[in-house]
Design a protein that fits this description.
With about 200 residues, the protein is α/β, with parallel strands linked by helices. Helices cover about 35% and strands about 25% of the residues. It has seven helices and seven strands, in the order H-E-H-E-H-E-E-H-E-E-H-E-H-H. Strands 1, 2, 3, 4, 5, 6 and 7 form a seven-stranded mixed beta sheet that branches. Helix 4 crosses helix 5 (about 135-145). The longest helix has 19 residues, at about 45-65. The two termini are about 20 Å apart. About 35% of the residues are buried.
C-alpha cells in the first residue's frame, strides 16, 4: 500500500453514536455516514452469516458513494436458540426481549468489514456470550424505564445500567458487545495500511 493510500479518508458506515464513540478510541480521523441497509435476515441464514453479510453490505453501499475511501461497516445480531434480537424500537418490544432472555444465555455476534469500492472486504466476526440473571417482570420494567435501550440489540446496554441484568459475560473483546470489536477493527486497519499505535 502506498503512503498516499494510507492517507485516504476513513468512513464509518453507521449512524450509531456507540460505534462512533468506540472508533474514536483508536485515534484515527473518520467521518460517519448511515447506509440504511435492509437488515432483514434471509431464510435459513445463521446469525454469524447475517451479521457478516450486513456489515459488508453497509460498507459496500457507502464505498460505492465514496470510491476513494476506506469504509468500515459493522453489524450485531443477538441470538437465543432460534430467536434473533434486533433493535427493539419500542418499550413493549424491549420488555418482550428481556423476558425471553431472562435466566438464559444469548450470543451477541458482532461482525466488522473494511473495504474500498470494488475490492474484497477484510472481515472479522466476534462472539460474546451473555448469561442473564433470572429477571422479574418488575425488574425488567424498572430497567427499561431507567435506561430505554431501544436502539440496542437485546434491549440492554452493558456499558450502563444494563450490566446489572447480567450474571456473566464471556468475551475476548468487551467492546464487541457495545457494537464495534476494537481488537478486530485495529487488526483490519493495520493490515490495510493504517498506522495505529
Amino acid at each position: 500500500m502506498t503512503s498516499k493510500s494510507k492517507k485516504l479518508p476513513l468512513i464509518l458506515a453507521s449512524g450509531s453514536r456507540y460505534r462512533a464513540e468506540l472508533l474514536k478510541r483508536l485515534g484515527l480521523p473518520f467521518t460517519q455516514q448511515s447506509s440504511d441497509v435492509d437488515e432483514a435476515e434471509q431464510p435459513g441464514e445463521a446469525p454469524a452469516a447475517l451479521a457478516l453479510r450486513l456489515a459488508v453490505e453497509k460498507a459496500q453501499v457507502i464505498a460505492a458513494r465514496n470510491p476513494d475511501c476506506w469504509v468500515l461497516g459493522s453489524d450485531q445480531v443477538a441470538a437465543l436458540a432460534q430467536n434473533r434480537f434486533g433493535k427493539p424500537g419500542t418499550r413493549a418490544r424491549a420488555i418482550q426481549q428481556l423476558k425471553l432472555l431472562s435466566g438464559r444465555s444469548a450470543q451477541f455476534i458482532t461482525a466488522v468489514a473494511l473495504l474500498r469500492d470494488g475490492e474484497p472486504a477484510h472481515t472479522a466476526v466476534d462472539t460474546t456470550v451473555v448469561r442473564f440473571r433470572k429477571l422479574s417482570a418488575a425488574e425488567i420494567e424498572r430497567y427499561v424505564d431507567a435506561e430505554p435501550a431501544f436502539d440496542c440489540a437485546g434491549s440492554f446496554k452493558c456499558e450502563g445500567l444494563g450490566i446489572t441484568l447480567c450474571e456473566s459475560i464471556e468475551t475476548r473483546d468487551p467492546t464487541a458487545l457495545i457494537g464495534l470489536p476494537l481488537i478486530a477493527t485495529r487488526a483490519l486497519l493495520s493490515e490495510t495500511g493504517f498506522q495505529l499505535p
